[in-house]
Write a structure and sequence with these properties.
Length: 434
């Protein structure tokens, strides 16, 4: 992929601390399947940065060596892993580069203060804001979006409730046909009327089918009409400013665009069935979408389900807010009831109509499980979200554990992704459940 302009990374003295002596060099990249684009891989010690970490009894260096092995596959320009256990940051590290194709092994190295896009994991932030507004009495989970957005009522969508949009049972998983999605993404706004014109594929609450974008266009519109305030302003005033978040937000100010880690399509060509799903639900293929997500307009836009950007540490803090029942650092912004309702009002056990594999959703969250879980085996009660394509963030109250695992390669199917899941399973297995 072409090189981008040099950028000045966010950094702090702690973030640039030298790697620990136990760090091991990554082996030479050995892609397990033919790849369209593999990124430059350098000796692990040279491109590892460590932030403030508190000592603990967990063997986290073992998990970090798994991250080094993942980096050695060449699937990710940068990887960040931030782990909090029992309320303390016990691991805060990055490996790799902010750029897709760095000009030298140590130029523009990612740090724990680098900004990363959460992509679809942004939904947990928007959903939390919705639950805060329910606390405030501005909305109800049984509110009908059509009462706030009358044009949404067509084709029987007046029966849809707000909860159906949050848990992917509204029956509108796909983007409108004929929409110029690349232009929408470049402009950072999906037009409302084509989404309002969608014909539901199932009755409300009947079928689980993940909606990456379309349903969340309506969520944003409902929030803005119910409160009379823009979504981004509401997020800052209601949640982020009271908790002292510095950067985490929908997009970034123009002056920080160059400090956001850039993404690359990696791995073998997307299998035909996955390509069809991606085109249907996102409206464009992966090769077209990813470069757009590196563009200034996308990075400064407000997309409630696709472009919350922050540092790994900030993302962990936000999830810790939820693990602690809506209070963080002595500041309560959400009721315990709201958090409990969001993570216990679950969809039935069934195959997701979009992904084709078993998924359970809370009200805005992907849920863990005993046998099938994005967060590692035996993580029932954990909740969080996946983001394009292997970004994963979650908190597990039964382990007092919160994990932010961010990465900038976008493989859809590669045997090297086994190493990605190994990191998650390693962490889950080393922390006992209470």
């Amino acid at each position: 992929m072409p090189a981008t302009q040099p950028r000045r990374a966010l950094r702090s003295p702690q973030a640039l601390r030298a790697p620990t002596p136990s760090a091991r060099p990554a082996s030479s990249p050995r892609p397990l399947l033919p790849a369209r684009a593999l990124v430059d891989v350098h000796e692990a010690r040279a491109v590892t940065r460590i932030g403030p970490e508190e000592g603990c009894a967990l063997p986290l260096d073992v998990a970090w060596r798994d991250v080094e092995r993942l980096y050695a596959t060449g699937l990710h320009p940068a990887i960040a892993l931030n782990v909090a256990w029992q309320g303390r940051t016990v691991l805060d590290r990055t490996i790799g580069h902010v750029e897709n194709t760095p000009r030298g092994p140590t130029r523009h190295v990612a740090t724990p203060d680098t900004l990363f896009n959460l992509f679809s994991a942004s939904k947990i932030v928007t959903a939390t804001l919705v639950h805060a507004l329910v606390d405030d009495g501005d909305l109800s989970l049984d509110s009908r979006p059509a009462d706030f957005v009358p044009e949404f009522a067509s084709h029987g969508k007046d029966r849809i409730r707000l909860r159906h949009l949050l848990n992917h049972t509204a029956g509108i998983p796909d983007m409108p046909a004929g929409l110029d999605v690349p232009a929408c993404l470049r402009e950072g706004r999906v037009p409302l009327q084509p989404v309002c014109d969608l014909v539901p594929q199932s009755a409300p609450g009947e079928r689980v089918a993940y909606s990456p974008l379309a349903a969340w266009v309506i969520v944003q519109e409902v929030v803005e009409r119910a409160t009379g305030r823009p979504l981004a302003r509401l997020l800052r005033e209601r949640l982020l400013d009271p908790l002292g978040f510095a950067h985490m937000d929908y997009g970034v100010p123009e002056g920080l665009v160059d400090q956001v880690a850039r993404h690359a399509v990696t791995g073998p060509p997307v299998p035909a069935i996955m390509d069809r799903i991606f085109r249907r639900t996102v409206g464009v293929d992966l090769d077209t979408a990813v470069p757009i997500t590196n563009s200034p307009r996308f990075l400064t836009a407000v997309l409630p389900s696709a472009n919350v950007i922050g540092t790994p540490r900030e993302v962990t803090r936000f999830l810790e807010l939820l693990r602690r029942g809506g209070e963080l650092d002595g500041v309560r912004v959400l009721s315990e009831l709201a958090v409990r309702r969001a993570t216990t009002s679950l969809t039935p056990r069934q195959f997701d109509g979009t992904f084709g594999f078993p998924m359970r959703y809370g009200l805005g969250f992907m849920m863990g499980g005993r046998r099938f879980s994005l967060f590692g085996l035996n993580t029932a009660g954990a909740f969080g979200h996946l983001g394009l394509s292997t970004v994963v963030v979650f908190t597990d109250p039964h382990r007092d554990l919160t994990v932010t695992f961010l990465n900038t390669g976008k493989p859809m199917m590669d045997l090297g992704m086994v190493r990605w899941y190994q990191v998650l399973q390693r962490i889950a297995s080393m922390v006992p459940r209470r």
